[in-house]
Amino acid sequence: MSLGTGVSRERSLRSVLDDLQAAFQEGGIPALRKAYHQAEHMSLARRVAFRLVGAVYPVARVLDAAVLVDDRIRELGPHLGCRAALNELGFPWEVSLPPEDVSALRERPLVAYGNHPSLLTPFLVLAALDRPDVRILAVDSVARLVPHLAPSLLSVVPTFDRRARPRLGLGFMHRVGLSLLNRMEPEVSGDAARAQNRRALEEAASHVRDGGCIVVCPGGGAPGRWFSGIGALLKSLGDESDRSSLLLAPFQEQNCTYKLVYDILASRWPSSRKVARRRPPIRIVFSRPVPVPSILVSLSPSAPELTGLLESHYKTLFREAARDETASGKRGKAEEDQTSDF
Fold first, then answer.
1. CA triple 44-46-48, angle to 5 deg
2. CATH number for the domain including 125?
3. What does the pLDDT look like over 274-288, one tens digit per residue?
4. Same-domain pairing of 27 and 92
């Protein structure tokens, strides 16, 4: 390839990204999807640029999936819409709620918190919690990707440079996706981001005080130390004089990764999706909720210290649950083997 051709393709790719950014900021995901499909059929150079992007990230199918999710939420509401979209997109999934706590999880003032290992996390949580007052603390771009989900979101803004290279632990394909998405977003100063995040936390605390449900993913969808927003939220709730009805509910998304989601979305043939369905189903598992005050008894930790306590407790809780489930599975297998001898 000549130097001139390489420069031409680089300029073409940059031009495509600039056009997509303008469409996204003007009209969100529907406008971005339309601009993407239109640009894909323009000049030869642009077709080459799109194929280069599509070779490492299923942009078109991710955009199509976002539009489908948005349509179902518009038609059916967040809970039923997310359930319908997950099924239509071919994701095998299931929910596990502690039977004795189902009514509490769906009726009491609640702060639900857990991991965020895939693109599906907010939709799985909404599908699991059949209550109309769920609000999720989510990065601001989610509201533009799925506009009809916006009433269920409290937008926060990353205080780091979004255009910097994403963390290695995310996986190559998701790093590519984040890099493309981050190019779509306008730059926000650190002071403006922190002010927006304080407002979101204040609104979240007010929502819980009024009896609602807030969902937080403190790890921000990446491996590493948790962000301290959940600690700040719980401290503000812990300062309330009447907090006896508040519950804290850990959850974990299991058997899912960003790569698995992209693989299923990128599958062009029904046989590929059948292979995905033979995998263990994606699970959203809720542990038993506990009263918020029990965490703050005889302690007065700072927000980062409280976040660290929650993170340690969370990891221990689900590590022990996984160990118990493995032991239970082995006991069941042993019983089957004994039964088969007769």
1. 70
2. 3.40.1130
3. 555 567 899 999 999
4. no
The pairing of strands 247-254 and 290-291 is: antiparallel
- Split into its structural domains, the chain has a count of 2
Instruction: Determine which of 135-139, 209-213, 216-220, 331-335 has the lowest per-residue pLDDT on average.
Output: 331-335
Helix (H, G, I), strand (E, B) or coil at 340: helix
Q: Is residue 22 part of a domain?
A: yes
Residue 78 within any structural domain of the chain:
no
342 within a domain of the structure (yes/no)? no
pLDDT of residue 278: 67
Q: Residue 225 is which amino acid?
A: R
Q: What is the pLDDT of residues 114-136, one digit of tens each?
A: 999 998 999 999 999 999 999 99
Question: Residue 310: what are its φ and ψ, rounded to 5°?
Answer: -65, -40
CA dihedral 129, 131, 132, 138 (to 10 degrees): -30
Full residue range of the structural domain in which residue 218 is found: 85-327
Task: Tell whether 32 and 101 lie within a shared domain.
Answer: no
Cβ count near 63 (within 10 Å): 19
Q: SS3 for 215?
A: strand
pLDDT surpassing 50 at residue 340:
no
- Residues 253 and 121: beta-carbon distance below 8 Å: yes
Residues 118 and 186 in one domain: yes
State whether 254 and 299 are in the same domain. yes
pLDDT digits (tens, 9 = 90+) for 236-285: 887 654 566 889 999 999 999 888 888 888 775 444 455 555 678 999 99
pTM here is: 0.80
| Separation of alpha carbons 2 and 4, rounded Å | 5
7, two tokens: 């420069």
Cα–Cα–Cα angle for 119, 52, 44, nearest 5°? 130
Question: Would residue 335 count as lying in a domain?
Answer: no
